[in-house]
Amino acid sequence: MNPESQDFEQLRRLFAVKRHEQPPPGYFDRFSRDVIARIKAGEQGDAAPANAGWIQKLWAILEARPVFAGAFGAAVCAMLISAILNSESTGSVPNPMNPAMTQAGGAFAPASTVAATSVSVNDNAALASGPILNANPADTASLQQLFDFNATQPNLQVAPVSFQTPAGN
Amino acid sequence: MIMTEPATGKASKPSPPERKVEQETPPATVDESVLVDRARRGDLGAYDELVQRYQQRVYATVYHMTSNHEDANDLAQEAFIKAYQALKSFKGGSSFYTWVYRIAVNKTINFLKQRKNRTHLSLNDLDFNAENDPDLVALTSDKTPRREANLTELQEKLNEAMQQLSEQHRLVVTLHDVQGLSHEEIAAIMECNIGTVRSRLFYARQQLQGYLSDYLK
Description:
The complex is a heterodimer. Chain A contains eight helices and one strand, in the order H-H-E-H-H-H-H-H-H. Chain A is an all-alpha fold.
């Protein structure tokens, strides 16, 4: 017999130790019972969520898979952030991009509306003395020009003003 | 079915007690494929019988791979549970025994890869026959360096040496040298060819010889 196989033979004899290693007494008496109990518990666990509400089903899924729980949490956070951003943008000053606010010619609002707003808000005296709405086309055109940011801006110049009173008064 | 009695020639039906005797055949004689079919239809009693048939061998394989009783208990149970859940996909191409072995082995190898460098031995006690085993008597009574080593020390050293092997090599040694499976059976379980089994076994034994040189002089 060659020495190598002789050594393997000795090794094989050493493995007899492993064959004598035994689990605690009675271990195999309850092994199959434990397996069957775990199978039954798993089946009941699977069947229960079917009768439960959708929240319990969702909870069962999230509990079983931590990845799903993380993804669900991230989705809720993303929805919350987008809702906050959305509410901020809708609560701000009129948006020029808002189609409801734009009219023909690119002005923010029709002249008549602007006139009505300015009168009703600022000048109570005007309310008492004159007509509320100015339907004069010339006036409305000038107002429209004033608020029309898309139109060419008038060439505004600054001129010195004197507040001296005439001599003799 | 109507049967004729040879002695009287009268027609008769099989008596109910005979049928009952047929049904009460000892479970050990029930064919594996019958039990598998019944288990597949949800008969947990049949599956319990299958578990009892193979629990010792499956547990032993996992235990010798992990050298830890608690881990082996968990993994062996999980292997049987997974096998039950996947029973519908079992085509019968191999025996149930080979199939469940494969599940246990794959589970164990995955577990060992995750557990890497966290080896904690939790060894089972040796049974009372160990001291009378001729192989072990020779190992502990010769006038060699191993003479003073008691069986518990040998057990510890052997398990430590086993843990030095890669999972694949440890598996081949466990299945062949500890559990006595043939090369063909091991090849079927590991889904590789017999040549691979032989070469792995040779390499693993060489490695073990190096680790256990003090006990093999």
